[in-house]
Amino acid sequence: MSQISRGLENVYIKTTSLTYIDGENGILRYGGYDIDDLVDHTTFEEVVYLMLYGDLPNKIQLQRIRVLLNEGYEIPQQVIDMIYGLPRDSDAVGMMETAFSALSSIYGSPWNKVTNRETAIKVIARASTVVTNVLRAKEGKKPRIPEPSDSFARSFLEASFNRTPSTEEVKAMDASLILYADHEVPASTTAALVTSSTLSDMYSCVVAALAALKGPLHGGAAEEAFKQFLEIGSPENTDQWFQKKIVEGKARLMGFGHRVYKTYDPRAKLFKRFAKQLSERNQEAKKYFEIAQKVEELGIQMFSQKHIFPNTDFYSGVVFYALGFPVYMFTSLFALSRTLGWTAHVIEYVEEQHRLIRPRALYVGPIRREVIPIELRG
Ligand SMILES: CC(=O)SCCNC(=O)CCNC(=O)[C@H](O)C(C)(C)COP(=O)(O)OP(=O)(O)OC[C@H]1O[C@@H](n2cnc3c(N)ncnc32)[C@H](O)[C@@H]1OP(=O)(O)O
Ligand SMILES: O=C([O-])CC(=O)C(=O)O
């Protein structure tokens, strides 16, 4: 009898030099570098280089990445028109899917070892323009293309909000871009890999990944986690909410639990640090940070014996909210950063390990039946 692994748990689909996770000890490394070290001492652009070229860049290599990102922000007017042509209350990730499908029609090209990495950098730059304009379209603002600067995070914030962000805001945005950049082969990256295995183009891989990311069990959880804090409304309501909703109602605590981490997600600690810092200057964010801390405490009391702890989506929403993003944008912000991981993994797969991904399903239906003419069926 063939073995089935429900949810493909513990099935290895590829080897990787990109990301290492130790789920028992809560360790995450990109290319051997601890996530804390990268957040404290590098920028997103350096991590782009690390993931695509295998090590941190020197100054000249970093400058080249900046130039490529800065040159990549332009997207065709037809794609901008498509984003702004959708109803304003459309789902933000759905709008991204539409834009990336259009980009795949325009730019989708065959894989090529010489150009794959530069294509990935363009995909990342274009993702910034797409996400900025999804936000702006939904907010009823005019289109805007991120402007070249020495920081991808700053260009993105400036274009999104039409204002100069503070150094602290740029640092928090940059950190969140690094924290969400990759996580080995979660559902979205697996969807991208399946797509790449047919030798479909890189933009189509992003469309597949976006479709898988937006569900509430994966990238959609940051929005769902924050909606819990909104529903609680005030720190003193937390105990009652938790008792009614989670203990008695047996609802899943969103932003808790993980297929691989059986301890505290290392990214959640870092997001918590930025959430605390940013919320010190923002009363509303401070309220939600306090609520989140209380929910975390109760969640750990209730679930830690089952090895269920806060995941990366638990505090990221407080950071995004404090930066000024509406809740409906949280998954798109995750997607912006994860475009790096998706493209890096599909390149690794297509260049080094390519084979069509085609699993089997074990048939358990009736063995063989004769077709009865319709007039004789009961
Ligand atoms: C960026 C990311 O994608 S991180 C994940 C974001 N998702 C969320 O935060 C949504 C909430 N979390 C979850 O639903 C889960 O923890 C998942 C889907 C992320 C991973 O879970 P899986 O490995 O598939 O575990 P599974 O869903 O089989 O649950 C195992 C047990 O833990 C329980 N459990 C898992 N997560 C939670 C949770 N957040 N709240 C309450 N119970 C939970 C399940 O009810 C189940 O209990 P049982 O054995 O008594 O039936
Ligand atoms: O690894 C996973 O299954 C989900 C996750 O944390 C991520 O994609 O960042």
Automatic annotation (TrEMBL):
Its EC number is 2.3.3.16. PROSITE patterns: CITRATE_SYNTHASE. One of its GO terms (molecular function) is citrate synthase activity. PANTHER family: CITRATE SYNTHASE, CITRATE SYNTHASE, PEROXISOMAL. The active site is at 258, 313. One of its GO terms (cellular component) is cytoplasm. This is Citrate synthase. Pathway: Carbohydrate metabolism; tricarboxylic acid cycle. Belongs to the citrate synthase family. It catalyses: oxaloacetate + acetyl-CoA + H2O = citrate + CoA + H(+). Coiled coil: none annotated. InterPro entries: 2-MeCitrate/Citrate_synth_II, Cit_synThplmales, Citrate_synth-like_lrg_a-sub, Citrate_synth-like_sm_a-sub, Citrate_synthase, Citrate_synthase_AS, Citrate_synthase_bac-typ, Citrate_synthase_sf. One of its GO terms (biological process) is tricarboxylic acid cycle. The chain crosses the membrane at residues 314-336. Keywords: Membrane, Transferase, Transmembrane, Transmembrane helix, Tricarboxylic acid cycle.
